[in-house]
Design goal:
141 residues, alpha+beta, two-stranded antiparallel ribbon, 6 strands, 30% helix, globular
């Protein structure tokens, strides 16, 4: 709730940002640390890469070009860093949550070809379940 992101509105609603692969998660972390936080990874708090198992109903799949066309959003916009690109993503998130999607599958802006699952935690518990996965490894220490 207190972090700005492309798939959530600061102080309005939160989003759990996840990646479908280890490489995607590391790329996203490095992008955030390098661009927004302006720290070297070694200067950040100790972080681990962890796996989770997810069951989520009603996922908006923006990796599908037909779905992107429906929302009038190009791949370039969804992976862009300009404020207009970020606002497009937030507007799509607003619409998705109102329909009510519980998550958005999106192309990664940090690693070409990678895919993220952005999860909205509010709502009915039956539509979303998270479990600790089997993997955990140090990321920056």
């Amino acid at each position: 709730m207190h972090a700005a992101g492309c798939w959530n509105r600061y102080d309005e609603y939160g989003c759990l940002y996840t990646a479908l692969t280890r490489e995607g998660a590391i790329a996203e972390y490095r992008k955030v640390v390098g661009k927004y936080v302006e720290l070297a990874a070694s200067e950040d708090d100790k972080r681990d890469v962890v796996s989770i198992r997810v069951h989520v109903e009603l996922v908006l799949d923006l990796t599908d070009s037909r779905v992107r066309d429906e929302y009038r959003a190009s791949l370039i916009t969804l992976t862009g860093d300009h404020e207009a690109d970020l606002e497009t993503c937030r507007s799509i998130a607003d619409l998705a949550r109102a329909r009510p999607y519980r998550a958005i599958l999106s192309p990664s802006a940090a690693l070409e070809g990678a895919v993220n699952l952005n999860i909205y935690l509010e709502g009915r518990a039956a539509e979303l379940r998270l479990w600790e996965g089997p993997d955990r490894e140090p990321l920056n220490y």
